[in-house]
Amino acid sequence: MSSAITYSDSGRIDTRLRISALWVAMLFVFAYVDLFSLYRPDVRADLEAEKLSAFDINQTFLFSTTLYIVIPSLMVYLTLVMRPRTNRVVNMIVAAGYGLTVIGSAVGEWNYYILGSAIETILLALVIHHAWTWPKAASRP
């Protein structure tokens, strides 16, 4: 009987699973921090006025926001199925890009949002770290 979790020879959790789990964790923090914003009167007032920060809430905004969320959501799966070389590069690029947007959106925000953004940034930095230090496959005789 085999385990549902893949382990390497050292007994450590496979890099693919680590990175995929980090994407899941980042998405949970991302979603909850945004949901907590709905408790803020200023955010609710902006939403009633069909605004969110400097953006008008319209089809283009909602479509773009959906694309923004779909990419890390797909990374959960893609990390498990891409080839290692591609996996490393794609994870580092996507995590770095999202890290920049997370940091940028936290500027001038409330403390809970800054904390959530800091946690998201740490999780994304761990994605980059694990992708960067991806172990080389053991050579076969």
Uncertain segments: none
Q: What count of helical segments does DSSP give? A: 5
List the secondary-structure elements in sequence, H or E. HHEEHHH
The largest beta-sheet arranges its strands as 1-2
- Name the structural class: mainly alpha
Largest sheet: 2 strands, antiparallel
Description:
With 141 residues, the chain is mainly alpha-helical. The chain has 5 helices and 2 strands, in the order ααββααα. The chain has a two-stranded antiparallel sheet with strand order 1-2. Strand 1 (51-52) and strand 2 (55-56) form a beta hairpin.
Q: Which helices and strands, and how do they pair?
A:
Elements: H1 15-36, H2 41-48, E1 51-52, E2 55-56, H3 59-81, H4 84-106, H5 111-132
Antiparallel strand pairs: 1-2
Helix pairs in contact: 1-3, 1-5, 3-4, 4-5
Features of this protein?
single chain; about 140 residues; mainly alpha; elongated
Brief characterization of the structure:
The protein has 141 residues and is mostly helical.
